[in-house]
Amino acid sequence: MGKVYKIGVIKGDGIGPEIIDEAINILDATASKFGFDLNYEEFLLGGSAIDATGVPLPAETISGVKRVDAVLFGAIGGPKWDNLDRHLRPESGLLGLRKEMGTFANLRPATVYDELINASTLKPNIVQGVDIMVVRELTGGIYFGEPREYSKDVAYNTMVYTREEIVRIGKVAFDIAMKRDKRVCSVEKANVLEVSQLWREVMEEIAEDYPEVELTHLYVDNAAMQLIKEPKQFDVIVTGNIFGDILSDAASMLTGSIGLLPSASTGSKVGLYEPIHGSAPDIAGQGIANPIATISSAAMMLKYAFGELEAADAIENAIKRVLADGYRTGDIGAFDAKEIVSCSEMGSIIANSISKS
Ligand code: NAD
Class assignment of domain 131-253? Predict the structure, then answer.
């Protein structure tokens, strides 16, 4: 028997179950081709957890994700749960899970598929060849900072980073840059925020240990503009939680659809692999979601969690072949499509392509 990997599966809400089912099909096709075994164990999170247990992050999910090798996650949230108190909402469950797992480094590649060059809202010559890795700090910053308060008359949050938190995310970014084009752009708002001033100083200190890597700094407003103006200037972007959240969504549009972009949340023993998009309640249950972001997240899991590099490449190559053959889900259907397919058809076509390759 080959190696056995244990995967925690969190389908979540909205389109979550649809896209995860396809990622599992692809993982199974890859496992039988490359001779390893996958065991899946399902856990609840978000709205579906609220409906089943009354809380968005059940204790069983917290203990369960610690006994697997990696977690594959769809998405959570939806209008049904929007009016609950903040700590009971699906999103609190996800933030809590990331914190519990200690996955402080969120890697969000934004790569433009040549086959989808016309899907971007930007001109082909601007986006062709874009290959950016956004390294977003995920368990600190303003989403977690205390104190925080809401009342009818005043509300506030706190943006806080310790030196230690900045050092560990900075090292992740520089290590990744060493395996790429050796350029790191640190993004913050040091002209206005003290927390960003510390961020910039610490990045400068880390850079001294990586003499081959070129470090540049951009204020977040300028970075947003540069991403749209000249995205090819970027190799690795390292930034805090909220800025990374916003910039990686912007970067996703360079590629044509948010339904294409994967992510890996790492930094701890067990990583979390998930598409960057949400639960898309507007299209949930219609079978039209694009599963590629989740399938590509599964490929990141094979690569980063299990070191199955050949299998990961096989998935990415199959995605490219299928796009080159003109298969498109609706979100990218207007661009060089030969056939518009459903979420499950896209999954099966990619799985077949892997098996036949
Ligand atoms: P969203 O990413 O769910 O959707 C934004 C738009 O992109 C929608 O028009 C949607 O139809 C489209 N879209 C997203 N994924 C797609 C896919 N795979 N294929 C085709 N189209 C896709 O963001 P939103 O509408 O702001 O949020 C919806 C819910 O998701 C909210 O409850 C929000 O809190 C939650 N959310 C969850 C996560 C997560 O689970 N990681 C992330 C972001 C938002």
Answer: alpha beta
